[in-house]
Structure formats: C-alpha cells, structure tokens
C-alpha cells in the first residue's frame, strides 16, 4: 500500500523505517527529521538517539534480522573479467585539460588534438596505482563520459582510437588492482562476508586524525583530495542501474535517489560538498584541483569508474558501493567534528552531518538489499561483489597512508600546495 509504514530490523544494524511515520517523544513533542527513510538505533549507543549514527559498527553489534534465533538462508554462488566545436552541453561540468605529467598524458593530449589510432603505447610504470601520469590519463579518459574537457569535441567520447587507448590504461590498472587485492571466490552469504571484511579492516586512522589533530591546511587538503569524487558523488555507481534487475536495482535506485537529494537540487550530495568547499574558501568548480591530485587519489575514483562503465563488473560496483556506505557514517562524523574543532559551522559541516544519518540508512540497504540481493539473484557474481569491496578498502587504505605519511613529514599531500587564502 502506498501509505504503508514498513519497519525492517537489519542484521547487526538499525531499524529502517520507510513510509509516512511521525515520531514523538513520551511527552508528545515531535522528533524532527527531514528524511523519508529513517534509521533508528538498535544498539542503544548512538550519539543521536533515537536515530542511528553508525556506532553499531564500532561495537560489532550483533542482532538477527528476523525473529530472535532465526538464521538467514545462505546464498548460492569470482572477478568476471578484467581486463568539432568545443563541447558546451554539460551544464557546468567542464574541466580544462591539465598540463601533461609524462608519456601517458602526453600521448592522450595528442590523441585528443588529432584523433586517430595510437601508434604506440608508453612503457608500463612500475607502480600503476600510484603513478601520477597513468592515473591522470585514465581519469581524463573517463571524464569524457561524465562531462567534457574544454576544447575537446563531444564526439571523442566514443572515438574508437580514444577507447583503444583507454583500454590499454585499464589493462594495467586492472592488473595492479587484482594484484593488490588478491584472489576472491564464491561466498555463501555476501552480506555476512562484507560485514566481516569491514569489521576486520583496521584502515589508517585518517578520520580520527582529522577530528583531533589536523591543521587547517591539512583539513583543506583532505577536502581537495575528495573533490575528485564528491563533486560527482553517486554518478559512478549510477552506471550500474540499467545493468541490474529486481531487488538489487530497486535498492540502488533507493540509495541514489537519496544521494541526488530526493528531488531537491540543493540537497544533492555533490551540491552539499560544493557548499562545504565554498565555506572553506576553496574553489568549488568541477575539476578545479585535478592538476594537484596525486595518482593514488585519482586511482580511488578511477576504480569506481572502471567498475561502473563495464557491465561485466556490475557485481564489483555493487560491492564497492556497499563497502563505501559501510565505512562512511563514523568517518564523516569525525570529519564534521574536526571542522567544528577548527571553528567552522553548519555551512561547512552540513555535508558531513548529512552523511552520518544518510549512510546509516544506505549502509544496510547497500549491504543486504543491493549486494547480498544481487548475490542471491546471480550467484556467479558473489566473487565479483567481494572483490569490489576489497578493492575499495585496499585503495582507500593506501590513499589514507599517503596523506598521513606526508603530513607526518610536514609536507603537502598534494602535488603542489594550496595557495594561501
């Protein structure tokens, strides 16, 4: 029924409430929330009760989804395979072609100036995941599908020579990711495996450092790093929508509807991040800092673009999103606290505070309805789903280590320091 209220206790997580529910305290006073889907605390330790804030993950809270003692049915179930005039139609989503960094970006710039077939390919770098040149070239190839590059005709998005060049970059990137992540295979329960991975992954203490110790310059650098993704937040995962069916498709649409503001343009998460950048005195134009971003930062974004643009990797993009949402609420609470410590108010922290509550909802939908649901519907994809989650955790850890190592030496984590405000 259209006006039906449905409450679902998610395994090891909160109660999700969908429908036109109204919350009151015991004195009849309304408990306000702007959300259409609510996550209510079940572990009893949330700092924003009655709403969930993700603390149950830190506590390793355990509770069944069904009646007490009911055991969820296991799923049946590897990586499926790896390996004109300037454009003006992108609504502000244009970036300028940054300076070349080496042979890969130089070759791409030549191909974009004079489209054709790449005559030869540069030598493979020693460490593709952190190579500033290769990762920027791949990022720019993907960017043709998201927006556009100043002076590059729209037609080059699907030019066979550009696609061939991109494929060569992707082969190196894919091999490096698979080497870093290792082998994945069939699992009986995708949801339980993802929960195990996240629970056992310590990860570098980046969010805790930003919360308690980061200087203003370091906090600003963190925002600039994240701008490569956050200014197009949700877009890479949305490629998967037409490639899914049934419950996994519905789950992804539910998450993405929220990411895109539920019909309110000012609440689109990318718009909230742009507001944060403006509040910090940073340039909020799309792609404004691409030329300053190191290879490992670009690799974290290229990962989701690689997954999202390939239908055969739909399982990987589902696992990536699930792990992304599972590891979002607590870090974003800490990032918001860090900016409050540095003296900033809601204009800056709104983005982070929104993600504390939003991702407590998205977490459980992404794990159980999207990833676990896809694994049940397509058991052959369970290995891919786990691979996507492990790839996210692996690259995010390496990126965080880069920032913390640079800051421990009192160095900028960008390729060039930010100009003084």
Give the arrangement of secondary structure elements.
Elements: E1 6-9, E2 15-18, E3 37-40, H1 55-59, H2 103-113, H3 132-146, H4 160-181, H5 190-200, H6 206-212, H7 216-230, H8 235-238, H9 246-259, H10 269-279, H11 295-309, H12 314-326, H13 329-341, H14 346-377, H15 382-408
Helix pairs in contact: 2-3, 3-4, 3-11, 4-15, 5-14, 5-15, 6-13, 7-10, 9-14, 10-14, 11-15, 12-14, 12-15, 13-14
Structural class: mainly alpha
| Approximate helicity band | 40-55%
List the quaternary state of the chains. Answer: single chain
Shape: globular
Number of helices: 15
Contiguous runs where pLDDT drops below 50 for at least 5 residues: 71-90
The counted number of beta strands is 3
What is the string of helix and strand elements?
A: EEEHHHHHHHHHHHHHHH
Query: Biggest sheet, in brief?
Result: 3 strands, antiparallel
What distance separates the N and C termini?
54 Å
Write out the strand line-up for the largest beta sheet, numbering strands in chain order.
1-2-3
Rg, Å, rounded: 21 Å
Beta-strand content = under 5%
What is the mean pLDDT?
A: 92
